[in-house]
Amino acid sequence: MSWLTWRQHRLQALSTAGALGLIGLFMALTGAHMSSVFHGSGLSHCLATRSHGDCGELQSAFESRFSVLRQLGPLFLVLPLLLGFFWGAPLLARELEHGTHRLAWTQSIGRLRWLTVKLGFVIAFTALVAVVYSLVVSWWSGPLNASTGDRFQPGNFDQQGLVPAAYALFAVALGTAAGAVMRKTLAAMAVTLGGFVAVRLVVAAVIRRHFVAPVTERYASLPGRDTVHPGAWVLSQHAFDKHGRVVSQFEVGSTCHEGAGVTVRAADRCIRAHGFMNVDVFQPAGRFWLFQGIETAVFTGLAVALLAFTIWWVRARIS
């Protein structure tokens, strides 16, 4: 049964390995170049020994030089979906659609063994591909993350660390479950695409920010006050006056910072007189790995539930 499963899926496995190899080669070449420039330009030393504000010119030069590579980042988000699309969806749907599962079940191979071998092969291969992929992307993104400190931002968060492997397992499990229920490969692919995108969007846009209660920081918008939270995921930043009305930073500036001869002390008095107050809501940078672990557990749990449902469905509902 193991040999048969390999023969059935070897073309997919070799194609996936080849595509991953090409992606890895591209990342190895461009990542090594970025790392060399990051250290050779002095940016690495500057960020390690000074505040981020002192490294603005070096950061701008680095970001400008590698802006095209940064724009390629979102393309890496689709690999987990592709694994579910081309591995999970056809896994059972193709055999159920053509009836070849009945031949296997009449050759002294029970349903549970048939399922176990198929799922075991695909899940193991998916886990291997996803782990290698996430390690390579995390290494490749290292200089870009260090330059801007934005690895916690949506989009960047989703393509490095632990979560890509969990996304891939979820996508494959979703495709497999859809294939078992729909019994049509194209229909299973459509369900996999819609279901994966919907769940990912809900978690990323709505649920993730509530994994842990965010930090709320209130402070007077005084001249020279640093309003940047390095590496944090900033959910909102608003300024209020003493009446609790939301005001723009432009209004604060035009009220207290403009005009000839306005000193820092005068601006300070003006800000306090109007009661201007900034309120920032954010997830601190130190919670990055905590959020990675929580989201990985969420998608891994969904994958396990879908696989359990698939096993029950095949044993109870398919003849």
Helical residue percent?
55-70%
Percentage of β-strand residues = 5-15%
Q: How many distinct helices?
A: 12
What are the low-pLDDT stretches, counting only 5+ consecutive residues below 50?
none
Strand order of the largest sheet: 1-4-2-3
The best one-word shape is: elongated
How would you characterize this protein structure?
29% of the residues are buried. Strand 2 (233-240) and strand 3 (246-247) form a beta hairpin. This protein is 68% helix and 7% strand. By secondary structure, the protein is of the alpha+beta class. The chain has a four-stranded antiparallel β-sheet with strand order 1-4-2-3. The two termini are 20 Å apart.
Compact summary:
The chain is α+β, with helices and mostly antiparallel strands and 319 residues long.
Which terms would index this structure?
alpha+beta, 4 strands, 12 helices, 4-stranded antiparallel β-sheet, 319 residues, 68% helix, 2 domains
